[in-house]
Write a structure and sequence with these properties.
Distance between the termini: 103 Å
Structural class: alpha/beta
Number of helices: 4
CATH architecture: 3-Layer(aba) Sandwich
Shape: elongated
CATH topology: Rossmann fold
Low-confidence stretches: none
Number of domains: 1
Number of strands: 8
Mean pLDDT: 84
Largest sheet: 8 strands, mixed
Radius of gyration: 26 Å
Strand content: 25-35%
Length: 217
Amino acid sequence: MTIRILARAAAALSLLLLAACASIVDKPVRPTLFDMGPLPPITPPIERSGQRFALVVPEIDAAGALEGSAILYRLGYSDDHQLRAYSQSRWSAPPPQLVRQRLRQQLGRERPVLNLDESASLAREAAQPLYLLRMELEEFAHVFDEPASSRGVIRLRATLFLSTTAGEKLVGQRSIAVQGVAPSQDASGGVRALTEATDAAASDISEWLVQVARTRP
């Protein structure tokens, strides 16, 4: 009888110890997810002269670390050749997808922006020239110039093609490098700086497309 009571007491003590240990162990923390938020309001309304041809924007190409969902940063004052990632913060989707979505939204304020599967029917129905804007994302990182000063940097290579019955004809190419100032020196500040830089890149691309339309016969 005594042995049975001791066994029960030992089992109860073991359960108490396990519960205490479980309360001490930290629960895993889920990374905070970020996207680029809502579009800024159009103030004043955009008014640009020139032709607004319809545009197809395929998936953006990228390689290496940009294919994942990590929010990347560089310590320019220490080693600007080393890409680092915030451990507890992530993009809600890989940067090429988020950048493409943002560019489509911004460019779509001024012209029709289509997917590849929509382009063929448009060309058949309207008999209009079809332009494709292919892009490669080369840099998309939060860069610290100093511990208390940082910016979001985006570098894109944009290539415009005219789709013809003989294939795609090169119209022009442009390298885009813009930046936004980070309001805080953390992942949240980097996200806001990169969003500002992406919006600036969209404006740059839009102006370039208007210039291309003016020079086309």
